[in-house]
Hints:
CATH architecture of the largest domain: Orthogonal Bundle
CATH topology of the largest domain: Hypothetical protein af1432
CATH superfamily of the largest domain: Hypothetical protein af1432
CATH class of the largest domain: Mainly Alpha
Shape: globular
Helix content: 55-70%
Distance between the termini: 45 Å
Structural class: mainly alpha
Amino acid sequence: MALVTLQLSSREESLKSLEKLPRLSPLMVRLVSLLASPDCSVGELVSVVEKDVLLSAQILRRANSAAFGRIQPIHSLRHAISLLGLGTMRRFALGSSIGNLFSRTQTARSFSMTRFNLHSVATGTLAELLAEELRMELRSTAFLAGLLHDIGKLLIAVHVPKGFEEVLGLAALSREPFLECERQVLGIDHAELSSLAIARWDLDEEVRIAVRNHHEPDSGTPVSLLGILQKADEYVNSIGMSVLPARGSLMEPPALNFPLAAYSAARVQEKFEAERKRFSKLLA
């Protein structure tokens, strides 16, 4: 009975974190909508990003960093985006925009915003590449689903930091999946919190459903947003780009195959590795 009472109390505390979830401003809504689309142009990106002073400064700072070996300083957003690449830049910009919503908040001691951003952008990138290769109509939903699927972990780390550390401790001792440990300690899991955050932000319902179920078996169509998100998340975790601190040896990356779907998984992996090198420099 005491455990049930504790879980209910922790669940209520976790759900209260949604009340503190920053609202998306009209500019942020436009930015998310534009950047989620793989068809946005350099001009469109510049016209929106330049209205966000913090994001503009981040882009210029990264473009001028030693990681990119620039000899001459870069002063304009258009120049920076052109040099760094539109695809890489839109992923960095959208990932940073989500992170900036929580830039003034402290997180649990074991939580890393850098790890969170890298995992989120990597999962979104791989999901988008899979959707493109599989010729899905809405590639933007795949990127958004990957970007936001673990926002619940961030909410827990920010607003229930003690609970986050307890979940980590239980997972390390029991070796049970992190999701199950969340349910035991908090009475809720990050997938449910992520889906509630997406609903609160009035984002795509298909994205919300995929995010809510991304740890559940995919019993839908052979190629679905949920299936793509699950494979992308599992693959990114297996290569060491996890939100959580490293625990044990790395897994063998799973096959990126879909039943009855004819496409080149090797080509997706090659494109992903190229993109990963680019955005890792920006987000690290």
